[in-house]
Amino acid sequence: MDLLPKVFRTEGDMTKFDPDKIFNSIIKETGMNEGDAKHITELVVRRIISSGIKFLSGPHIREIVCSILSENHFEQERKIYTRIGMPVMDYEAILEKGAEIETEILINPEKIHHIAANQLAEEYTLLRILNDEESKAHLYGDLYIHQLKYFDSRPYQVCWDPRIILKNGIPPLKGWNLSSKTGPAINLNEAVIQLANWLGMMQTELCGIQNLDFINIFLAPYAKGLSKNEIKRDIKHLIHQLSHLAMMTSKNVLKVSLYCIPLLLKELEKVSAISLNGNYKGVYSDYTEESLNIFTALSEIFIEGDYNKNKFVYPKHIVIFNEKLLEDFATNYETLFDGIRTYHYPRFINSNSDWFMNKISKITSNAYINQGILQKVSLNLPRYAYLGKNEDKFMEVLSDKLKLCFGILNKKYKIIEKRLKTKHLPLLSGNITDQSIFPMENQELCIGFVGLNETVKKLTNLELHQSSEAFNYGRKIVLKLKELCDEESVISSKNYRLIEGSSNKAMQRFIRLDLIHFPKETKSFITQEKRSYTNSAHFSVNSNLKLEDRLIQQGEFQSIIQNGVLDIISMSKYDIETNDLKNILKYAVKNSKIICLKFIP
Predict the structure, then answer these.
(1) 334-383: per-residue pLDDT in tens?
(2) Mutual angle of helices 468-492 and 547-561, in 10-degree steps
(3) Are residues 30 and 107 in the same domain?
(4) Which of 152, 139, 130, 76 has the alpha carbon at shortest distance from 404?
(5) Do the beta carbons of residue 144 and residue 377 sit within 8 Å?
(6) Position 271 in a domain
(7) Would residue 299 count as lying in a domain?
(8) Which domain holds residue 268?
(9) For residue 301, which of 238, 208, 368 has the smallest C-alpha distance?
(10) What is the pLDDT of residue 98?
(11) Structural domain count, the chain
(12) CA–CA distance, 227 with 264 (Å, rounded to integer)
């Protein structure tokens, strides 16, 4: 024992080296049998003595143990026994200049802690939660686990029914005593402040977008008797507060979408209206004028921008449309059209789509429906084409990777179930009267995908838009994905859904790793202007489809996917003038299955 140095402890004192502590920790943490644990401990002691080390600490000893575990082929045990975190120099780099991947992000003390914690959480998920095959699939670029840093702790996103706050105040939970409780709002200004504060509170338990459904309808009773200027003033408070709340977290923006419609939904006409102090007063059809006034105020605020005339990045402005709405509220939509070239607002949702009809069917009663996404995983379709080399083999690879996704998503489901049970998600695990605020049966496990266009080009030599055969083959792939998701939903009694949207991070990661592993195949899809795969089932930016044909064909994919869909139309590419937008939207409703459209300059 005289040959062994003392050990410096994090508590600040020194203690004698004790091999039994290593032996016991190996058994406790890895489950290794006593014989193997004794052998590893002996090797550690010999290594320390032979090296002549003069200083030891707990982390240092753990590094030596992990090295010896690897040398003796106990790789799974090493993964369990290892430390997680980041090298000292990496942390120092963040302190001095910010993380390179976050160059567009405001760096503040909260963000610094956020970046460091993210790496720890990601390593934990890859080492401890996912198996080797699942971890490698993400690390090598076969698939992408969105928001991996929150995989072990938070759901992805939620669409809130605003009535939970309007009726109950914040927090709206029964028996809540962990912070102060406010009663229901007594006026419009207090109502919007409570809604904004609720979304800010929930950002501590969610990692993605939060949506507020039909905000102008549900706030309409609070606008009774107010002038248009008073309404606009209070709604502006909502927009600005949602922007400012992000500064209280480690995020640049609080990702929120506000759904609105100029006409009262007929499904809500006879639903009891929540008004001042959370009391029921009439039905929502009694407040059509106020609902329209809030709709108009939202439109004007988004178009005007903030105090410096800058656009609001968030919240997103989501507007419902159909042929009748475009005619009956022509002036309101023309106001929106005028702002598109400057602020890119809003996104338009087709109310005739199956997706929208399914959405409103869930919020027509006095019950609160909060539906969301627990997790999203995206598939790297072009890589499967590189691996498969032909259509049959591609489908085999696709099925195998999709099974991996199901396994990953099922693990996330179990984690969130556990976090709700143990109250590690204190708000989401609460109840409103007799209802759970976050019913697991309403949450979805989503599969996204990247590069359908490149995949079809690799397997058929033609892009999606270049022939009916290529288009139909792409459609066949998406239908197969949906079919497999539907089958797994029945088998597991969970909601597996195909989702269109991926993320720039996923697309950039896929292309970067494919350039390493499949350089010859990948380089054929890279140009000076375009250095990523095409998102989801979108057509190439170079496609020469007429706008009418594009809407019809893109709508075919949107009708299959049904979740998170968006088609972005360049006004300059199609030589679209502002006064053309109304007819384009009418055409989309009448002739296509388009769900969501966004116009950009």
Answers:
(1) 999 988 877 778 999 999 988 888 888 777 666 777 889 999 999 999 99
(2) 20
(3) no
(4) 130
(5) yes
(6) yes
(7) no
(8) 162-289
(9) 238
(10) 59
(11) 5
(12) 20
